[in-house]
Design goal:
2 copies of one chain form a homodimer.
Chain A: H1 2-11, H2 14-25, E1 33-36, H3 38-52, E2 56-60, H4 67-75, E3 79-82, H5 85-93, E4 101-103, H6 110-119, E5 123-126, H7 129-138, E6 143-147, H8 170-179, E7 183-188, H9 202-217, E8 224-226, H10 242-257, E9 261-264, H11 268-271, E10 275-285, E11 294-298, E12 317-320, E13 327-333, E14 342-352, E15 360-364, E16 385-388
Parallel strand pairs in A: 1-16, 2-3, 2-9, 3-4, 5-6, 6-7, 7-8, 8-9, 11-13
Antiparallel strand pairs in A: 1-10, 10-11, 10-15, 12-15, 13-14
Domain Orn/DAP/Arg decarboxylase 2 N-terminal (chains A, B): 40-272
Cofactor (chains A, B): pyridoxal 5'-phosphate
EC number (chains A, B): 4.1.1.17
């Protein structure tokens, strides 16, 4: 219960959390279900708008592509960051205007670029020469922002080098883009997933500002800074409140980049605390008489929604109706016949000793990166269900 | 090309591999597709039958639940190991008789046990007291085999302690099962996924034989030994040919357990080499001018079928039309905007230096644990497509 209290304080909308709780309490679920409160999404968007000021907010659709989320955000004037043709089609079908949807994946199929261009998408990400050639061929004259690799900043989930180019390559790529007839409008970067405090942005922004200055000196006239995502959600460790966080980040941006056009791509911060998974205990056991830990098996696991427990990176918060009882350490695992479908083992979870098969477990702040990661039917289990309220 | 040649020698059915190649060559794919040759599945089943003699073969449905695979195997008289209600329904709908389908997941929802019992399923796995109570209530009198934890044996993918109970708990659980009116018929274990040589079974069988002897001494009259899976597929390192492997394992079993009834649960060995994924290169890039490795991005990744590359555990074999050209080391990654969607980085893959966006890549021996792991639509990419030939 502590986790929930903290969360309510940090995010400051007790009434909607109660709405989520009431919906879960009133429902009998026959499979694990993500219950999603659109009003919380709307409140998060509003908090980000207040904090980010005149920056353009492009919701990272991959965080939760539920059509109702996209529709609500489109109605509110939010823009979108799409990773694929599928996400672009989703946004357009839910009412987004094509000029408000950016194609943010640096790895694009040529035919998907052509589709996006025909559909009216104007802004594309890139980090490599071959990608610029594909864009020049299939989206001639398009606006391109180049993604730069930045050093790790201590985020909960620092990113690999998969995306971006080294700062030293930026000028070369800007030149290639211009020579190919594209419009190299700016730079993008990613500060690292789940960057819990705004102060952690400063070193990253310094790095990008140095590259930006070089590009301006070289005469590229950049006009757009895409600050990406990294805005955090509450997963057990304290995070800054969303509006204050966004305000602080923007102050740091303005101090370094002046009044350039800014776009941001929040995903997790927009939807994580809008959702909770209603799950069920399938089995509680001990492997031997002298086992220190119980094993608790849930009906949801790494292949049915909780993929972000990989490496025990994201620590979800669990609630049960027995939380007043004595608690003890548990290894938590999913329901599949797969030995890697274990959620928390290195750092066990504390759960009531009275927990048993059939008990409901509510998993907090699961609105982001759960339902869409779910497998189509691994081990014959259906994908995570979604109920929007 | 070397990998393919090895594979053909090891598995000895060049004609059907050529059939798979011909089907892929003749098809234009607009998304990553698993092409699956049912004749290879049939040949693998036949090889296992010859090697395992009178053991009952229960195909582990989770390895590949394509309805056509289940139907073909049911026609051939194969039995099935199901992990869930969904897999049981699939087997029954494809013609399997309920007494030929075992419910092999030790973690079962109570309502799924009741469903299975009503459907005529007779054999259930268990490894904990609470599971036995659920079985006694919802499948009274059912036959139960208890899964025992065994020590790691050097398998490519040793299993965690997620499944099974310590050997010292087996007698207690057999007693609980009997007292609850269940029929504790035997023991099961898992030697470890991808146990590449039959000789690696001996220490595991010794452990299980010791528990078995204790149970017989205690008067439990066990009659069924479930030797589980672990039968390997070719993924770059040499494996024993399937029939010889199975023959050797059965000889080891008979030497320790006499003429007890034996069941086996092969999954990977039955379907892995029956399938190849037709994929496409989306981008080839270098992060900086002095990068030692190229980055190669495919249209299939960890969240769209290649989940078993987690920790770089399973090493797939890649073929392109440029394999005669000079090769060089690559980091291989999937198409999603997810930094963990990297397939091979610690041990880079050697690919032609001439490789470029749009090139087809055929990934060998992908028939097992690919399509069903695929996400429903992470990043807006559709699930791995399946084409059965």
């Amino acid at each position: 219960m502590t986790a929930l209290a903290d969360d309510r304080v940090l995010r400051g909308h007790p009434s909607v959390t109660l709405k989520l709780d009431a919906a879960i309490a009133a429902t009998t679920f026959d499979r694990p279900t993500l219950v999603l409160d659109l009003d919380v999404v709307e409140q998060n968007f509003a908090a980000l708008q207040r904090g980010l000021g005149d920056a353009s907010i492009h919701y990272a659709v991959k965080a939760n592509p539920a059509p109702q989320v996209i529709e609500r955000l489109a109605t509110l004037g939010c823009h979108f960051d799409a990773a694929s043709r599928g996400e672009i089609e989703l946004c357009l079908s839910m009412g987004a205007r094509p000029e408000h949807v950016s194609f943010g994946n640096t790895i694009k199929r040529a035919t998907d670029i052509a589709f996006a261009y025909r559909a009216g998408i104007t802004h594309f990400a890139a980090d490599a020469e071959e990608e610029l050639h594909k864009l020049a061929e299939h989206a001639p004259g398009a606006s391109v922002y180049l993604r730069v690799i930045v050093e790790p900043n201590g985020a909960d989930w620092p990113l690999t080098r998969k995306f971006g180019c080294a700062p030293a390559r930026v000028l070369t790529l800007l030149g290639v883009a211009r020579d190919l007839g594209l419009d190299p409008v700016g730079l993008s970067f990613h500060v690292g997933s789940q960057t819990r405090h705004a102060t952690m942005w400063s070193h990253t922004l310094d790095q990008v500002a140095a590259v930006w200055a070089q590009a301006q000196d070289a005469g590229f006239g950049l006009s757009l800074l895409n600050i990406g995502g990294g805005f955090p959600a509450f997963h057990g460790d304290a995070v800054d409140p969303l509006e204050a966080y966004a305000t602080d980040v923007m102050a740091q941006v303005r101090a370094r980049f002046g009044d350039v056009a800014v776009m941001a791509e929040p995903g997790r911060a927009m939807v994580a605390d809008a959702g909770a998974i209603a799950a069920e205990v399938l089995l509680v056991s001990r492997k031997s008489d002298d086992d220190l830990h119980r094993w608790v098996y849930l009906d949801v696991g790494r292949f049915s929604g909780l993929a972000e427990t990989e490496g025990e990176a994201i620590r979800y918060q669990f609630e049960t109706a027995r939380d007043e009882d004595e608690t003890g350490p548990c290894i938590l695992a999913g329901p599949s016949c797969d030995s890697v479908d274990v959620l928390y083992e290195k750092r066990p979870v504390s759960l009531p000793v009275s927990l048993r098969a059939g008990d409901r477990v509510v998993i907090r702040n699961c609105g982001a990166y759960t339902s869409s990661y779910s497998s189509v039917g691994f081990n014959g289990f259906p994908p995570l269900d979604v109920m929007v309220i």
